[in-house]
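Handout, page 2. Input:
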Amino acid sequence: MRTEKITAENVDNVQLKSLYESAFPKEERIPYDELKGLFGVMPIDFMAYYDEDVFVGLTMVLNRKDFNWGWYFAVREELRGRGYGQHILTALKAKYADRRLVIDIESPWQTDCNNKEQRCRRYEFYKRNGFRNTQTAKSFEGIDYTILLLGEGTFTQNDYDSIIDDLRKFWKNLPKED
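Output:
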C-alpha cells in the first residue's frame, strides 16, 4: 500500500472529497472548502492511501506536542472488510509511535442512534489494536463520542479542552475569502 500526503496542491481530488463527504455525517465534518483552508494554518497530516493505483482510504491527524489526535479515518465503503483499515491503522500506529494517539469515535453506548452495530464493531476494532477507553466523553450535535487512547499515560477532559482551544485559535487564523 502506498500513501500520498494531501497538500493544498492535491486536495482537489474528487475521490478523496467523495469519501470524506460520504464516510462522515454532515454534523461530524468540516465543510470541505474550509478543510482545504486548514493547510498551512494547522499542523495536520492529511493522507490518502492506495493499493497500487486504487484509492482506498484517508486519514487526518492533528500533530501536537503532547499527543496526536486522529481526526478522520475512513476506508471506501465497497472496500471495507478486506483488511485495508487494519493496514492503515498499523501504519498510523507506527508513524505516531513517539507520542500518544487519541481518537474520538461515535459512542457505542449511545442508545438513540441508527448505527449501534457499526459503533460497537468500530469500538472493538480499536480495542483489538491497543486503544483503551479514557473514560472521557463529549457530545456534539446530538452525537455522543467516546475518546480512546493508544500509548502510555492518561487523557483527561482538560486534555480534550486544550484540543478545542487550539482548534479555535487555528480557526480564528484561517484566511478569510473576499
